[in-house]
Structures are given as C-alpha cells and as structure tokens.
Amino acid sequence: MNLEEFFNRYPKIALGFSGGVDSSFLLYAALKYGANVKPYFIKTAFQPEFEYEDAMRMASELGAEVTVLRYDVEDFPEVCANPKDRCYHCKNALFKSLKKQAILDGYTTLIDGTNASDDGDDRPGMKALGELDVLSPLRLCGITKAEVRRLSKEAGLFTWDKPAYACLATRMPTGVKITKDLLMRIEMCEAELFDLGFTDFRVRYFHDAARIQLPNDQFPLALKQKDEILRRFASYFENVFLDLKER
Fold it and tell me: What is the reported pLDDT for 246?
C-alpha cells in the first residue's frame, strides 16, 4: 500500500499534528491526495513554543486550519509521576482526549506521524496508539524517516531538515515529579542556547541543576561562551553542568 491508496481507503481523517517532520509531510500528503483531513495540535507544557509556531506556519503554508487543544499537564497525575512508562500514560491520555474531540467533530479515523524507522518494540507510547486504534500511514506504507525528509524536501516543506526534538518531559529523570515550573525552566534554558547558536542539544534536569548535553563539535563554543551561558541560566538554575559525553 502507498499513501495515495491509504487516503483513498480513509478519505476522512483526523491527524495528530505536531509540526514536526513526519506529521507535516503527512498533512501535505493527505491534502495532495484529496483527503478531508483535520489536523489537531495538542498544546501542553511538554511542547516548547517554537513547536507550536512551526505547526501554525506549516498549516498556513499548506492552507489547512488547525484545531488547537490545550491541556494542563498537571491534570494527568499518572504522567507527572514520571514512571518508566510515562510515555504510554501520556500518549494514552492526550490521544484519548484528541480522539474524543475528533469524533465530536465528525472524524472517526485518527492518524499520527509514526514512520517505518520508529521501533515499536521500544516505544511504550506506540502501545497506547495501538490500543486507541490510531493508524500510522507512514509506518503502514513502509516510509522511513530518511524517505520522509527526502520527500519533504522535494515538496518544498521547510520542515524537511528540522532536527528531531523530543518532548520536554524527556529531560526529567524517571521518578522525578514533572511540574509546569520545571518544564518552563528547561524550555527557557534551551531557548537561550538556541539564541547563542547551539543546535542538536538537550538541557536535562539533574538534582536541581541544569545538565547541558552537546555534540562534540560544539564543546569549544560552550567553553568560549561559558560566562554568558551562566548569566542567562541564572534565573532558572543556580548550578549548570556540561556533560562531557557527546549527545
């Protein structure tokens, strides 16, 4: 099966839309093949503001209207407790809410951007998607991440080379309670690093300190801008560490 065949089989669909590489290409493909697609963006403290902005930009460029569903992460205690299977509880809670709204809007088939490169055996969130009967067209059609990027570039989508960006909850060690305040502090620190010219990094929470993970080739820049990083992080963390292991 290819994507055209998929959208012929499912011509009316709701899309869990993040504005990332995969879901952006999926929105493009659905529109290209004439599907009645309704994208939904789930806005929580788990997503940094730039993800929301990218999603709105992509939808605007494709001529699609996005429904934004806003949730308070602290309304999901099983997620905020941050167990090993946090991703399962998170996907289950958020996609269950999305599916409920989609059905109210008249869309009974829900899809997401999981691709054929994603390892289902190692992703508890994908278990939740399966239980909720969420379909993953890219995975079903055997389209890998590399192919999504290539096809996105050919289609002129600005997301074609967008770096992978895991949700902010992944910055917390398992078992550490997730709060909106902690997520905000991490998001602000990562925004500061973006502003200073860093890419493909993570700022992780570590015993009430910020632990910066960088690619090896950005270590010299971190040392050069050490004082500026400390100054900018001071409002959020008293202690800042540089992880010497490459991200």
Answer: 76
Q: Which residues of 120-142 are buried (b: 16+ CB within 10 A; e: fewer)?
A: eeeebbbbbbeeeebbbbbbbbe
Q: Which residues of the chain have pLDDT under 70?
A: 119-123
Which residue has 């602000």 as its token pair? Answer: 188
Angle CA 41–56–161, to nearest 5: 95
**Are residue 87 and residue 187 in the same domain, yes or no?**
no
Q: Indicate yes or no: pTM above 0.70.
A: yes
CA dihedral 82, 88, 91, 94 (to 10 degrees): -60
Domain that holds residue 8: 3-161
What pLDDT, in 10s, does the model give residues 132-171?
Answer: 899 999 999 999 999 999 999 999 999 999 988 889 999 9
The CA distances from residue 122 to 18, 71, 133, in Å, are 21, 26, 19
CA neighbor of 148 nearest in space, from 42, 53, 27: 27
Sign of the four-CA dihedral 51, 233, 211, 45: negative
Q: Can you say whether residue 143 is alpha, beta or left, with left for phi > 0 and alpha for psi between -120 and 50 degrees? A: beta
Amino acid letter for position 150:
R
- The total number of structural domains in the chain stands at 2
**Position 172 in a domain:** no
How far apart CA 42 and CA 88 sit, in angstroms, is: 16
Contacts of 55 (CB under 8 A, 6+ apart): 17, 18, 19, 24, 41, 66
